[in-house]
Design a protein that fits this description.
Length: 113
């Protein structure tokens, strides 16, 4: 069955960096766009970034543009989210999603001093 497993979350100080990973299985990973979303306490889930199947086309929410980088390794069936210059407003549970419509369980990112 389809599985998406996120990892790499944690506690980081403002200005710090984290890299999230999402390991996929159960479908042809290379054929589908992959997306990251996040959900902060008391807020709706919001889209963060997308990388299309060809890996050349990517897009980002304005709130993370210039700070976050999405990438994928089709040989490892994994999508990444490199997050730099983190801000307290980035605190959320981060989810990956395949364009097949499946979600991972999420990984917590907390930005705090």
């Amino acid at each position: 069955q389809v599985q998406l497993v996120e990892s790499g979350g944690g506690l980081v100080q403002p200005g710090g960096s984290l890299t999230l990973s999402c390991a996929a299985s159960g479908f042809t990973f290379s054929a589908y766009a992959m997306r990251w979303y996040r959900q902060a306490p008391g807020k709706e889930r919001e889209w963060v970034a997308v990388i299309f199947a060809n890996s050349n086309n990517r897009d980002y929410a304005d709130s993370v543009k210039g700070r976050f980088t999405i990438s994928r390794d089709n040989a490892k069936n994994t999508v990444y989210l490199q997050m730099n210059n983190l801000e307290p407003e980035d605190t959320a549970v981060y989810f990956c999603r395949s364009d097949l419509g499946y979600w991972g369980q999420g990984t917590q990112v907390t930005v705090s001093s």
